[in-house]
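Let us work through a complete example step by step.
Step 1: write down the sequence.
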Amino acid sequence: MRFRKLLLLAVFAIQPPTAAGMHYTQSGLESGFWDRGSVVYAEVASVEKNDGNGRAVLRLGILSSISGPLDAANVGELSADVWYGLIGTSVRRLPEKGARVIAFVETRKDGTFLVPPSNLRFMPDFAAMFVVKNFDSPDVRKLINVLRNLRKGYEKLEAKRKRDAEEKVPSTESR
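Step 2: predict the structure and record it as tokens.
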């Protein structure tokens, strides 16, 4: 029993994002998912490692928005927190300065940005960010096709959620 407690404490100390419940797999079909997240094509302007716990801040120059509400014409550059290289995080290694990446960027409630540690089923290798040589990369074409199909499914699911919510609200005309 004592060993289990020590193991649990070690996991919380070493793996803060996963131990705190931040790690999970997302399909992209969750309600409101695309209201706060965007897939972007970006160039890494700078990499700042914050500490030895696998946390960094990336400065991304947004070249194009692939999906989601982030407008590349409006947000030219942003800083995003990223957890990387830890057991359970989807980003294995940080890209170098100047690298071109495809990244899922989540806008937090306070307006800051995050490349989430969670696995994303619609991204190659479930990674929230991956390096590409250019926009003609086969992974980019695959991702765009997956996002097109996902978008259709998401829109159908959101319409169903809306219909279900309307059916639960009693009509005022029947009184």
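Step 3: interpret the result. The domain at 33-162 is CATH 2.40.50.120 (OB fold (Dihydrolipoamide Acetyltransferase, E2P)).
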